[in-house]
Amino acid sequence: MKATLTFEGKTVEVEIAEEEARKIFGEPKTGWERVEPGQRYCYITGGGFVVAEEEERDESDDFYYDNGNYFADKDLANEQARAIKLWMRIKRWAAEHCEPVAWQPGDDGWKYKYGIMWSLEDMSGERRIRPAIQDSTRQFGNVYFDTEEHAKQCIQEFRDDLLWYFTECCDRMDG
Question: Helix crossing, 148-157 with 74-97: angle to 10°?
Fold first, then answer.
């Protein structure tokens, strides 16, 4: 691992083993780790608000941690709250505008449906949000639309939030 070291006003690049760097700097923080008792953590309420609590290692703290609603970093909690609200709003939009298309147990899986995709590069070299055809798969967390036109309409309605999600939203603090 390469690092920049500054000593007495001089800067040099040094190479250090990852194990040594971890000894010096500690483990990278994801924002999802448990905090020490007495420190504050955050959780997201049912209304989508971020609340800070003091860790006491009691049933309440365990509940939030065990259910994946426990954040050591408030910025990460706010990002996740915003992403969850966007996902739920898009799920509602699809339910209000589309015929049911989600795969059900026993289906052969070949009913075409559409999702929303961030294309890192299409053939023109452009980055964009676009409908993505889904056929024989069901992907965790996807929202499905019955037609390409419905997917396009949803993208248009939520364009700014989707752009934020695909280009800025972080799922963890260490990368």
Answer: 140
Cβ-contact 142, 134 below 8 angstroms:
yes
Tokens encoding 91: 């799920």
Q: 77 exposed, middle or buried (CB, 10 Å; 0-12, 13-18, 19+)?
A: buried
- Do 43 and 64 touch, CB atoms closer than 8 A? yes
The rounded percent of the chain whose pLDDT value lies above 90 is 63
Q: Please tell me the distance from the alpha carbon of residue 118 to that of residue 60, in angstroms, as a whole number.
A: 37
pLDDT digits (tens, 9 = 90+) for 32-91: 999 999 999 999 999 999 999 999 999 999 999 999 999 999 999 999 999 999 999 999
What are the extents of the domains in the chain? 92-175
Burial annotation 44-67 (CB, 10 A radius, 16+ → b, else e): beeeeebeeeebeeeeebeebbee
Residue appearing with tokens 């024989």: 136
Q: What three-state secondary structure class fits 95?
A: helix
Which amino acid, one-letter code, is at 169?
C
Q: How many CB atoms lie within 10 A of CB 75?
A: 13
Give the tokens for residue 70. Answer: 């426990």
